[in-house]
Specification:
Elements (H helix, E strand, L loop, with lengths): L11 H17 L4 E5 L6 H10 L19 H4 L5 E8 L7 H5 L6 E2 L8 H22 L7 E4 L7 H7 L4 E2 L5 E2 L7 E8 L19 H5 L5 E3 L2 E2 L5 H7 L6 H7 L2 E3 L3 H4 L26 H5 L3 H7 L9 H14 L5 H11 L4 H16 L7
Parallel strand pairs: 3-10
Antiparallel strand pairs: 1-2, 2-7, 4-7, 5-6, 8-9
Helix pairs in contact: 1-5, 13-15, 14-15
Length: 372
């Protein structure tokens, strides 16, 4: 969609008033913060290319598509001059992530995926926000602006835009961090040609000498401050990766079956993380309180039914079973677990069979020696 440029005759005060009201309108729709930036991303383009050249994106070929469009918003949306960036807290109330991680028989799902798919939730609210903006402009006789909305749904350097618009800084774990909210939030954008005043960019990095995220990463995926090798990341391995999980990463996965939160859970700034007020992010189908065996025994029909409208659909049923098989192999030895794996081995697809076989062997190594 091309954006029609505004004319010089439009009243500046209308846009200034609009800019002042944006945050209150966004908050009414569940967003916690709004920023405004231009489209110049400077050296972020070179950083992205270096990351791609090193192959750190793994099988995520889409990361290399679209040329430099990711770092040049005006090539994605012709005529765009401003990006309205927003963040929305997603941490659900009442969950016990650390307790789950410490209970090998329980399934761990990344906090962002416990509820309804955030793409659907946020996009709907972004559309409402733009309608509010557009209606305001129409009320003031301005009728030729347009926009496109995004939330992790297009080739955009979201974190770079958010940092430049003042929503936080990109931390050593490569996530956006905020002094008053940590990092358990989603990002979203509205690309537009509205001549809005720019927000003050985030100019200070508050990670300091802390390396906690690097130290706790189970697979050492944060290979250096601000450098993530996605091929080692549990989120990548359990969601984006489609083949066999490398043996060296299976034990470190523990009971994490969809995503990983460790670099957030142990980040000191997340003592300020806010519980989300959006009920759509509340856990569904008891995904915050299920055992690995319960989830492993879902058939494909149950998987599709229980993950309808969930980000978990991205891994697919095959990936779901593969991931849980690995997690079961990381449990303390339990004859019931072993028998569940053995019973499901023959009928499983080859990819899942491979991981079940590994899991059974791993459990066998921990089988108590009753002769001693």
């Amino acid at each position: 969609m091309s954006i029609i440029p505004h004319t010089d005759q439009e009243p500046r005060e209308v846009y200034q008033s609009l800019g002042r009201q944006l945050e209150s309108w966004a908050q009414e729709l569940g967003f916690q913060q709004v920023g405004i930036t231009d489209t110049e991303l400077g050296d972020h383009e070179a950083r992205l290319q270096t990351w791609l050249d090193k192959g750190f994106h793994g099988e995520m070929a889409y990361m290399g598509h679209h040329g430099r469009m990711r770092s040049r918003p005006s090539e994605l949306v012709p005529g765009v001059t401003r990006v309205i960036t927003l963040r929305m807290d997603y941490l659900p109330a009442g969950t016990e992530p650390l307790a789950q991680l410490e209970s090998p028989a329980d399934a761990y799902v990344a906090r962002y995926a416990l509820g309804r798919d955030y793409h659907k939730v946020i996009r709907r609210r972004l559309v409402k926000l733009w309608k509010r903006i557009n209606d305001y402009l129409l009320d003031h006789g301005i009728d030729h602006h347009s926009a496109r909305v995004f939330t992790d749904s297009a080739p955009i350097l979201e974190k770079a835009l958010a940092e430049k618009s003042g929503l936080g800084w990109i931390g050593k774990n490569t996530l956006l961090l905020n002094q008053s909210a940590g990092s358990f939030f989603f990002l979203a954008e509205i690309f537009t040609d509205l001549p809005l005043s720019l927000s003050e960019p985030q100019s200070t990095n508050h990670c300091g000498s802390c390396n906690r995220c690097i130290e706790v990463c189970p697979t050492a995926a944060i290979i250096a401050p601000y450098q993530l090798d996605a091929r080692r990341c549990i989120s990548y391995l359990t969601i984006e990766h489609r083949g066999s999980i490398p043996v060296e990463f299976r034990a470190p996965m523990g009971n994490r079956i969809f995503g990983c939160d460790d670099c957030q859970l142990f980040c000191p700034w997340n003592k300020f993380a806010q519980v989300s007020s959006v009920t759509d992010f509340n856990p569904r189908n008891e995904l915050d309180a299920s055992t690995l065996i319960e989830l492993f025994l879902w058939n494909e029909t149950e998987f599709l039914s229980r993950t309808q409208g969930s980000a978990i659909r991205r891994t697919g049923y095959l990936g779901w079973r593969r991931n849980i098989a690995v997690a079961l192999g990381n449990c303390d030895f339990d004859e019931k677990v072993y028998q569940v794996l053995a019973t499901n081995l023959a009928a499983a697809p080859p990819l899942v069979q491979e991981h079940i076989t590994w899991a059974m062997a791993a459990l066998d190594e921990r089988r108590p020696n009753l002769s001693t």
